[in-house]
């Protein structure tokens, strides 16, 4: 889509004062997908020369904001030798996007849009990612990905602030992971996406819920909980108004699928075996159906 209100495109390597109507331009797949009548100038990041993705000496993985989805998927498939490597491909495949979008869409753009179904948010939040943010004055701050997105389309970014990179800790890359995704359509946008990660160092378990909620919800347990403990923790973590509602799924359905998938990843990653079923299970008739009605 042509952005006919944009009057100038500036190279981000030239430091100039930020002004109303400016926007960072990464891959542009969202920016050019719909009208942006408030924009007057784009600040192009494509020539910044940041290394797309690299393993640091301490084993952590640093992903530049300008790294494309296609680049990240190739790196995980060919270079990353870690138990969590398959999760990268699973999250990249969770995009509602063609190969053309894969080659343009950036990890940073997906995070900064803050959309509930953003699969790069799912990936980096589940692996305990940390965002490096840089202000117009050069000041930097670090924010956990789970805290970076605060609501549907909302982040902690200040005016003109830039997401420089996301770092995934080495310990998270050594985790065994489990992935579940639900959509109303075969190739539709995610309605619920749940990722479990079991830390082999201490046996702790994290369960991260995205797409179903307006913000990432990351639960940490020192040891895998039983079914009741997981359900109680998830109930307490997500407010009644935090289940997302749009054409891709009703809140009730999203909630049901999130709880169902959270239990599935708990069972898949639980090294201690299954816990006994409750003596008086919930009657089948009381359980919500998987398919919503509108």
Structure in words:
This protein has helices at 69-78, 85-92, 99-102, 107-113, 119-126, 145-148, 170-173, 227-237, 251-269, and strands at 8-11, 22-25, 41-44, 53-55, 61-64, 130-134, 140-144, 149-151, 154-155, 162-168, 176-182, 192-198, 205-210, 217-221. It folds into three domains: 1-47, no CATH class; 53-171, Uridine Diphospho-n-acetylenolpyruvylglucosamine Reductase, domain 3 (2-Layer Sandwich), CATH 3.30.465.10; 172-269, Enolase-like, domain 1. A five-stranded antiparallel sheet has the order 4-5-10-6-7. A four-stranded antiparallel sheet has the order 11-12-13-14, with helices on both faces. The chain has a three-stranded parallel sheet with strand order 1-3-2, with no helix packed on it. The protein is globular. With 294 residues, it is of the alpha+beta class. Helix 2 (85-92) runs antiparallel to helix 5 (119-126) and helix 8 (227-237) packs across helix 9. It starts with 7 loop residues before the first strand and ends in a 25-residue tail after the last helix. Strand 6 and strand 7 form a beta hairpin.
């Amino acid at each position: 889509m042509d952005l006919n209100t944009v009057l100038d495109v500036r190279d981000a390597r030239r430091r100039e004062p930020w002004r109303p109507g400016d926007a960072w331009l990464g891959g542009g797949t969202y920016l050019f997908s719909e009208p942006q009548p408030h924009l007057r100038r784009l600040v192009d990041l494509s020539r910044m020369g940041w290394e797309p993705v690299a393993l640091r000496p301490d084993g952590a993985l640093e992903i530049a904001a300008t790294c494309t989805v296609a680049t990240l998927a190739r790196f995980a498939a060919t270079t990353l030798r870690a138990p969590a490597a398959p999760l990268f491909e699973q999250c990249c495949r969770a995009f509602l996007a063609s190969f053309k979008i894969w080659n343009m869409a950036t990890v940073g753009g997906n995070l900064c849009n803050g959309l509930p179904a953003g699969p790069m948010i799912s990936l980096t939040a589940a692996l305990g990612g940390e965002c490096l943010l840089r202000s117009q004055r050069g000041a930097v701050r670090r924010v956990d990905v789970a805290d970076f997105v605060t609501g549907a389309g909302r982040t902690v970014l200040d005016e003109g602030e830039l997401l420089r990179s996301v770092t995934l800790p080495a310990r998270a890359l050594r985790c065994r992971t489990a992935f579940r995704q639900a959509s109303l359509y075969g190739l539709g946008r995610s309605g619920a996406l749940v990722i479990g990660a079991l830390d082999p160092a201490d046996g702790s378990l994290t369960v991260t819920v995205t797409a179903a909620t307006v913000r990432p919800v990351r639960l940490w347990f020192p040891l895998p909980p039983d079914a009741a403990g997981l359900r109680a923790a998830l109930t307490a973590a997500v407010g009644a108004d935090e289940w997302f509602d749009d054409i891709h799924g009703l809140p009730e359905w999203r909630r049901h699928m999130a709880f169902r998938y959270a239990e599935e990843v708990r069972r898949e990653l639980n090294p201690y075996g299954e816990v006994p079923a409750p003596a008086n299970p919930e009657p089948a008739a009381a359980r919500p159906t998987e398919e919503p009605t509108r």
